[in-house]
Structure formats: C-alpha cells, structure tokens
C-alpha cells in the first residue's frame, strides 16, 4: 500500500514473454528509479483455485483495502479470470464492494482481453475528474461485444490473407512482412495476437493445398475411363475380375506406363506437386471413386455388347420376316418387326437406319433378280420398233406375262422403278453399249477398255485418266414440265438411259441425274420447281398440242411470279431465271387438226416470249425427243451451270453482211443469266477487239 516506490534502474515489463529477451524490445526504465503511486487496482481472483478458500481470500482483500483507504488514493476492485469465474465468488465480491463508499468493480479476463482497458480507464477517470465517466459493462456483455469485434476483425483478416496468399507454397515470414502495414492485419493481431493470426494463415494454406490435390484427383479420375478404354476394351478379358485383380492385368499391358505412374512413396496426394498431371498415380485405383469408375466401365462394355446383340437380332428379324419386302415403308413394317426389348436398348432412329440399309440391299437384290427375269424373257422385246417406246397395250402384255413371276411381284411397291428397268432393258436390247449395259461398271466391254487403257497408257496419262474417272464429279437437277402424262413418260425414258444407280453418261463422263416431273398447278407446294431438297438447274418444257403449250407458258409465268415474291430460305436459289428448253414431242397417235408446222411456229413464239431455247424436232412428227436431243439439253445445262453457254448466230444480219468481217456471238438463254454475259465473255475475249452491243451480246472481229 506504499505510495512512493524507489528501485534504481528497474525496467518496466509489458509482457512476461519479454523476460530473458529484453534486448529485443523497446526498453523503458523507471524515471530516476523513483515512482509515485497515484491509484490502486485491487485484483480479486474469482476462479476456483486448488486448496483455496474464497472466504479467507475475501478477508485478506478486505484488510488490504482498509490499508489502501488510509492512503486517500483512489482504488478500483478488479475481478480477474472471469472467463473461469464462479458465480458465488463474483456475487460475494460485488457485495463486498457495495459495503464500501464509491468503490467500483470491473469484471475482467486477461486471457480473453475483456474489460482490461476498462479497468485502467475507470481508475484514470477517478484520478482526472475532467474525463468522462467510463461506463462499466458486465463481463458477459463485454465478452459478447468483444466476440463480435473479433469476428469482424477475423473476417477482414481472412479476406486479406485470401487476397495475398494464392499458393499453398507460401511461408509465414514472407507473408507476414507483406501484411505488416495492412490495418486488417494490425487490428486482428491487436485483438487476438500473432499466434492466432499465424494459425489462420496456416489453415488457409492447408485449404489451398487440399483444393490443389482435389483438382488433381478430379483430373486423374476424368482420365481414368479413357485409360480403361485403351487398355482393357474387351469385356471377355475383365468381365469377372475385381478391380484388385484387374490392376495386375493393367500392369501387364504394353501401354501401361503411357497412362499410369507407379510411385515409390504413397499415397499420391503427399507428392501431388511432383506429379506431371499427364499420367494417373497407380495407387489412386485403390480409392472408392476409382472403383466406381471401373464398375461403370464394366457396365458400359456390357451395355455395348447387349446393344450389338440387339442390332444383330434386329437384322436377323429383318432377314427372316416375310412382312419386310422391297420398298415397304418403315411405318408399315414397324409393327411386324419391333418388340418391347428393342425399344429398351436403342433409339428408334437406330432401327430406322438399319432398316433403310436393309431395304437398299433388298431393292438392289430385287432389281438384279428382275433384270435376270427380263433377260430370260427376251422374246417379249423382239417385236418393238427401233427407238420407239412400247405402247400401253404392249406394256400390258409384258406385265401380264411377267406378272405371275415372284421376281416381278417383289417390286410391287416400286412400280416406277420397275417400269424404268423395263424401258432401260428395251433400250439395251436395241442399243447394246457399255453405257446402257445393266451390269454398269462390271460390263465386260468397259472392263476390257479399262484394262487395256491401264496397260498401254503412260503413268502420267493413267493418273489423269483415273482422276477424271472419280465418281461424284457433277450433278444435274432437271425439272420436266408437261401435261397429260408427257412429263412422266419422258422421265421414264430418261431413266431408261441411266445406269442402275441413276447415273447418266455424257461425253464419256458420269453425272448424277435427278428428275422432277411436274404435270399440275405449279403454285401448289407438291408441284413447286424449288423444294428444300431439290434446287433445279434447268427445266425441260414439253408440249404436243395448243392446250399443252398454253399450260407450259402459264406454268412458267406462275413460277416466275412465285420466285419474284419468295422470301424463304430458297430465295437466293430462285432469284436467277431458270434455264428453259421448249420441246415439241410426239402426239401419241392422236389425229387432230394441228399441223406440225403450226405447232412449231406457236412453240417458237412462246419460246421468244419466255426467252428460252426452242428445240425443233427436226425429223418427222411421229417421233419423241431422242437420246441425242436429251444429251444436247443436258450438255446445255452443264454449260449454263459453268456460266459459259454460248450460241453462235447462224445467219449474218445486215450489219455483218455489209461489213463482212464481224460475227455476232450471243449468250445462250439456257444460261439463265443474260445480264452476266459481258462479265463472262469480255475476259475471254480480251485479246480480240470487241464492243458490247446489248445485254448478253458482243460484236467480235
């Protein structure tokens, strides 16, 4: 209870942690070794002590206070260790203070740093009355406020650590130096101390390491199914093996080290930083996640085998089913060949694809059989006129004779193809060439020619010839416009000139030919020139009377009107005028008062109006359009597609006759783009003096 102390050269210590390390901290000595005492903090331990009687302790405190009161210095009772305080002890201490005049009590905990500053602040206010009176807060309320303050400071400090520390390789000393000036670091260290700040840092680093290991683990597990597919793709090899037994099998595979790495020290996650990431640690297979992936691999192989078996069963079902005939649509055959098991394993689209391929085989086989049937009944075709299409009566006789044959009935749902085969056979009977041969590429004449060419040609020529022989070089889409069966009949005649796979041979080159016969109102979608799957390159217009000629002219006008107003996805294709050819064909034996000459004149007038080519029949009125004329039309279409179709005027005009040194060259209307003639011709004729006369016309020396 002394109020004056004297102790020369004594240091004032702030913390017991500094004992023995005084030189490492700032040193503060008592001034002149003397220190006057201005007030007292009377500390009372309210925790439960070993072999200590609190009542005896309180008597000692009471006697001590009596001594302090004699000094006339202010005093404050400080209850310490309230974090472990006994409630009765705290009540008794408060009761002791109430019996004294103006004796204040502050509940503290140095360990939790609760109300420590309040105790000194309360004493300071008693010494200096000019200071505001400090509000004394009970321990538990102060602890709550302290906890909230610490939680807020902790959140800010953790945010700071997360922003600065991005790698689990960071060390505390370096990070501590980086954070030293940050207020978030300073506040938390002030409240909780450096050890707890370091502990939170280490927890963050450990979390980063775990996240790094987890990323690696997910990457390895994502790679494992590929490794299993590469090393054990055969179900028979692993069907009854556990993962432990399968591991030995994997190690024996030649490509094992391409997919896996065997570590000397396990587990792998302790060495995650040293792994390359390209190969899977082999001990990862011992984890439950790897075992699940192995089971999934087995299940996938079993399902693939089952699906393959279902495909085979479905094909076998198609082969054995009497309800699957050539040309039968899937919708008609589905109910006879599908069962519930099929729907369990594969989508219907897969079965439709298999059915389509099977149908193609059936149709090809049926066509071959029908071709053999036609060869067996060759006598049916001897009495036909050369280059003439058989009459309906003759076709009826042919069908009646062949009708009882199963090979004829097999194409019952493909009557158009069957009629085309008959016409093609007739054409072959009277024009037996390698182009019209039913055997197509297997024709002996063609094979002999190929063999001789390959033997005799030089290597460079052989390479060039092989390049020209490649399939799929070009395609021709042709609309055939006619009335009263004219379009369909001509389409069948053209198909008869094609090979079995709808290829047309023109000047030694094979083209893919697609025909669209139209005989109705062209404004209806079913009779439209352009469809989503068919973009025509030209149109062949047929007529054999004044009525059919009027139908052609009206249909072309309607089609052009529709193309001009079109706004759908085919607008670009329909924008350019379609190349047209107008043809006068056989009247099929009808009498009529119209002469050949009048029909030709009317056709020429319509052709001039439509700005299209008119094909003069040239040889007698009793003939249809012949093979040569068809080839001429198709060749014009090909030239038009290339933008180089030209027609040379046959007779010189007055200007040419007068000057005698000029020839008029006009772009063929089959091109369908007269306005582009100048762009096509001028570059070709740069070397010649020429001048433009009009759209699509050039004067050339």
UniProtKB/TrEMBL annotation:
Residues 307-369 form the FF domain. It comes from Alaudala cheleensis (Asian short-toed lark). This is RHG35 protein. Keywords: Cell projection, Cytoplasm, GTPase activation, Nucleotide-binding, Repeat. The gene is Arhgap35. Its main location: other. GO terms for cellular component: cell projection; cytosol; endomembrane system. It is found in: Cell projection; Cytoplasm; Endomembrane system. SMART domains: FF. GO terms for biological process: regulation of axonogenesis; regulation of cell size; Rho protein signal transduction.
């Amino acid at each position: 209870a002394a109020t004056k102390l004297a102790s020369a050269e004594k240091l004032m210590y702030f913390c017991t942690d500094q004992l023995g390390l005084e030189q490492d901290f700032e040193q503060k000595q008592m001034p002149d070794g003397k220190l006057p005492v201005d007030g007292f903090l009377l500390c009372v331990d309210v925790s439960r002590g070993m072999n200590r009687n609190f009542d005896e302790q309180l008597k000692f405190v009471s006697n001590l206070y009596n001594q302090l009161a004699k000094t006339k210095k202010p005093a404050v009772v400080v209850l310490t260790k309230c974090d472990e305080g006994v409630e009765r002890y705290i009540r008794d201490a408060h009761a002791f203070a109430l019996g004294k005049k103006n004796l204040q009590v502050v509940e503290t905990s140095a360990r939790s740093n609760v109300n420590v500053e309040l105790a000194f602040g309360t004493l300071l206010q008693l010494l200096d009355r000019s200071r505001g009176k400090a509000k004394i807060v009970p321990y538990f309320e102060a602890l709550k406020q302290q906890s909230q303050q610490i939680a807020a400071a902790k959140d800010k400090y953790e945010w700071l650590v997360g922003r600065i520390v991005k790698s689990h390789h960071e060390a505390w000393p370096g990070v501590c130096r980086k954070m030293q000036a940050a207020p978030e670091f300073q506040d938390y260290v002030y409240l909780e101390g450096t050890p707890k700040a370091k502990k939170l840092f280490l927890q963050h680093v450990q979390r980063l390491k775990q996240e790094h290991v987890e990323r690696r683990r997910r990457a390895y597990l994502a790679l494992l199914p590929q490794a299993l597919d590469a090393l054990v793709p055969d179900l028979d090899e692993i069907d009854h093996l556990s993962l432990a037994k399968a591991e030995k099998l994997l190690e024996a595979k030649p490509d094992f080290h391409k997919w896996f790495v065997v570590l000397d020290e396990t587990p792998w996650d302790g060495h995650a930083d040293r792994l390359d990431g390209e190969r899977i640690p082999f001990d990862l297979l011992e984890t439950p996640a790897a075992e699940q992936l192995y089971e999934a691999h087995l299940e996938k192989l079993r399902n693939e085998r089952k699906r393959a078996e279902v495909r085979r069963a479905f094909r076998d079902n198609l082969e054995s089913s009497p309800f699957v005939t050539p040309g039968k649509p899937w919708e008609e055959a589905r109910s006879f060949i599908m069962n519930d098991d099929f729907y369990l394993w594969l989508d219907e689209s897969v079965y439709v694809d298999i059915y389509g391929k099977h149908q193609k085989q059936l149709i090809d086989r049926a066509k071959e059989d029908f071709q053999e049937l036609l060869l067996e009944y060759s006598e049916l075709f001897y009495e036909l006129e050369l280059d003439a299409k058989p009459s309906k009566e003759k076709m009826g006789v042919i069908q009646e004779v062949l009708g009882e044959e199963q090979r004829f009935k097999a194409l019952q749902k493909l009557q158009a193809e069957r009629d085309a085969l008959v016409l093609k056979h007739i054409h072959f009977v009277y024009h037996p060439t390698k182009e019209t041969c039913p055997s197509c590429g297997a024709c002996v004449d063609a094979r002999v020619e190929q063999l001789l060419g390959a033997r005799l040609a030089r290597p460079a020529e052989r390479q060039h010839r092989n390049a020209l022989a490649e399939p799929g070089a070009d395609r021709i889409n042709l609309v055939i416009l006619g009335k009263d069966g004219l379009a369909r009949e001509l389409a069948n005649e053209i198909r008869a000139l094609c090979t079995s796979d709808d290829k047309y041979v023109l000047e030694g080159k094979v083209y893919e030919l697609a025909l669209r016969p139209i005989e109705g109102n062209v404004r209806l979608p079913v009779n439209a020139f352009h469809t989503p799957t068919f973009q025509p390159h030209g149109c062949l217009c047929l007529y054999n009377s004044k009525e059919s000629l009027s139908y052609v002219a009206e249909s072309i006008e309607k089609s052009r009107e529709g193309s001009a107003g079109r706004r759908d996805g085919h607008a670009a294709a329909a924008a350019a005028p379609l190349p047209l050819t107008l043809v006068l064909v056989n009247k099929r034996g009808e009498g009529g008062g119209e002469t050949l000459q009048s029909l030709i004149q009317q056709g020429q007038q319509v052709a001039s109006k439509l700005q299209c080519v008119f094909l003069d029949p040239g040889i007698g009125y009793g003939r249809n359009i012949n093979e040569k004329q068809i080839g001429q039309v198709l060749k014009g279409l090909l030239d038009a597609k290339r933008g180089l179709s030209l027609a040379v005027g046959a007779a010189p005009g007055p200007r040419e006759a007068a000057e005698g040194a000029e020839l008029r060259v006009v772009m063929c209307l089959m091109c369908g783009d007269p306005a582009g003639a100048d762009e096509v011709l001028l570059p070709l004729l740069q070397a010649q003096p020429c001048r433009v006369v009009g759209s699509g016309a050039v004067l050339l020396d």
